[in-house]
Amino acid sequence: MLIEDRFFDQEWVQSMSNEDFRMLMYLLHSASKKCGIVELNMRMLNYAANTGRTYTKDEVLKRFAKMLTAIPGHADTAIFHNWIAVNWTRDGRAMDIERNPLDKSIAKELAAYGLTIAKVNAMASAKVEVAPPTMRNTKAASEAVTAISDVIKMFAKFWETYPAECPRKVDKAKCLTKFCSYMAKAKDRDALFKDIMDGLAKWKACTTWTKDGGQFIRAPLVWLNNMNWKDTPANGNANATGNANASYKASDVEGIF
Questions:
Q1: How far is CA 120 from each of CA 12, 58, 69, 241, rounded to the nearest angstrom?
Q2: Would you place residue 16 in the very low, low, confident or very high pLDDT band (cuts 50, 70, 90)?
């Protein structure tokens, strides 16, 4: 992760606005660990900012131009252009792509986006320092980042627990967005998460989901959209998926159940 020692003591961190700080924490958390490539999920970024207004992708890129660059030809994707240098370069050592397996894997990930290590380094050297806005309340920003991190951890647990046998366990990003929308409105996130996980446990135990190798397990996005954790599953009744299936199709998302 692109974070220096004593991160919260850094002057550039303390000079950030609350909303910038919260968005940066989400971006850093979401970036690929090898190359610092990140998908700009604007719903999540606006949830992280928590200002009541809606930021655009271009605004976010401008706000973080000092460290983040859009990847040409890949919509809603950007890269922390100093990530590789900070995390993988030691004592000025150049990347040895031909000999070092780690360097090869980094080069391979970059190549999928039409990038090379040289191109990324060029992005970094071309950047102009941007004076950040004034920080208003570091403690409030830190608490907000902790809340965002907790929600992401909750979702990770939910996704891990959702049956791997489900042939429709897809749309993870959309599921995360839906999950976060519930958490953002919850008066007690911990209580809601417990309800979701308890409800999921009941569905995992019902015969509808356990029979036929899990062929009738609902897609997680359907399950979340319909708040099925509040329902009592009908054992052995595969047709009980009908209403959920209709809702799923109505949302213009591919899949059934």
A1: 22, 20, 9, 48
A2: confident
